[in-house]
Amino acid sequence: MSKIILFDGVCNFCSNSVNFIIKRDKHATFKFGSLQSDIGIKLKNQTNLPEDTDSIVLMEDGKYYDKSTAALRISKELDGFWKFLYVFIIVPKPLRDLAYNYLAKNRYKWFGKKDQCMLPSPEIKSRFLKEEYDNNIM
After folding, report:
1. Predicted local distance difference test score (pLDDT) of residue 119
2. Is residue 132 in some structural domain?
3. How far apart are CA 40 and CA 112, in angstroms?
4. Does 50 fall in a domain?
5. Is residue 138 domain-resident?
6. What confidence score (pLDDT) does residue 111 get?
7. DSSP bridge partners of 33
8. Residue 115 sits in which domain range?
9. 101 in helix, strand or coil?
10. pTM of the model as a whole
11. From the CA atom positions of the chain, what is the Rg in Å?
């Protein structure tokens, strides 16, 4: 079963983060979709995510994780040093999310925003969810 990352497709920081993950996810563990896409909206509704969710979301094994928990669970699957960041999962979520929320609140100001969702290159297009994606992904 795939692990799915939903991200803010118009956020430059978020799109760059997806590219960062892809480069370090040598086993193609993750599939990607933007929160603004039809499939992203469908997945949000299927998992009862709050309507206003605009942070990174990791979906795996029928559960979803957001904000710092999603970021740390993703880092655990990456090649190299990044997997060791998972040790910060011991920090209470409210404290971790304080830092996450500060970055998220300022991401457009610091990194900019696109007019439309990122378009994956042909080399990585298969890593992105298609609108007709199988309903059994969760």
Report:
1. 62
2. no
3. 21
4. yes
5. no
6. 82
7. 6
8. 3-125
9. helix
10. 0.84
11. 14
For the chain, give the number of residues: 138
Would you place residue 15 in the very low, low, confident or very high pLDDT band (cuts 50, 70, 90)? confident
Report how far residue 13's alpha carbon sits from residue 110's, in angstroms, rounded to the nearest whole number: 9
The answer as to whether 77 is a domain residue is yes
In the numeric block, which tokens belong to residue 7? 């991200």
Handedness of CA 43, 55, 53, 87 (dihedral sign): positive
Q: What is the tally of structural domains in the chain?
A: 1
What per-residue confidence (pLDDT) applies to 23? Answer: 93
Q: Residue 124: in which H helix or E strand, if any? A: none
Contact between 82 and 25 (Cβ < 8 Å): no
Tell me the per-residue pLDDT of 93-119, one tens digit each, with 9 for 90 and over.
999 999 999 988 888 888 887 665 656
Q: Report DSSP letters for 14-69, one per residue.
A: HHHHHHHHHHH-TT--EEEEETTSHHHHHHHHHTT--TT--S-EEEETTEEEEHHH
Contact 19, 127 (CB under 8 A): no
What tokens does 107 get? 């991401």
